[in-house]
Structures are given as C-alpha cells and as structure tokens.
Amino acid sequence: MKFGGTSVGNPGSLQLVKNIIENQKEPVIVVVSALNGVTDRLLLAADFALNNNSGYKSLLDEMVDRHKEIIENGKYPPDWQGGGKTKDTAVV
Questions:
Q1: DSSP code of 2?
Q2: Are residues 42 and 63 in the same domain?
Q3: What is residue 42's three-state secondary structure?
C-alpha cells in the first residue's frame, strides 16, 4: 500500500490512512511519501539554494517545523502555508 500527497496531507487524512492500515486482514507493506505540498516546497528550496537565495533556509525550517508539529501534537503549525487543509484532529 502506498500513501502520499493529499492522502497524508493533514492530520485527519493521516488518521484515515492509519485506520485503513489497521483494518487490513493480512500483513501489508506500507510506503508513505511526502506530505501534501512538501515536494513543491523542496523543489523551491533547491531552486533558491542553486541561485544563492538564502530563502531556502526558512523553507527548510518551515518543513521541519511542520513535520515536528505533526509528530508531537498531531496538528499543523498555525502558520503553515504549504498546502493541505489545517485540521486540529489528533493522529493516534
């Protein structure tokens, strides 16, 4: 099973993915790719870095913060602008 993009785009979607995996009758292999909006942000950060634009640092910090917030609290940081809808649903 592979999940990515909008299927892992917000904490509510992650909860649905979790439920799908838990409801499988047989063991499964699960692949989770980038959260919604992250690939575009990574490409933008790479472009900035290649062009000596220091803005890449804040983009990377923003992505790290987004992932940490999801891991720690099951929520997106309030200032996240990288795609997906913000939802205050915990991921268990």
A1: E
A2: yes
A3: helix
Q: Which residue is listed with tokens 């472009």?
A: 47
Enclosing domain of residue 44: 37-77
Residue with tokens 């904490």: 11
Q: Per-residue pLDDT tens for 5-53?
A: 888 877 788 889 989 999 999 999 999 888 878 999 999 999 999 999 9
Task: Give the count of domains, the chain.
Answer: 2
> Is pLDDT of 86 > 80?
no
The contacts found for 41-45 with CB under 8 angstroms, 24 or more apart, are 41/82
Q: Does one domain contain both 31 and 41?
A: no
Same domain for 14 and 1, yes or no, is: yes
pLDDT score recorded for residue 37: 84
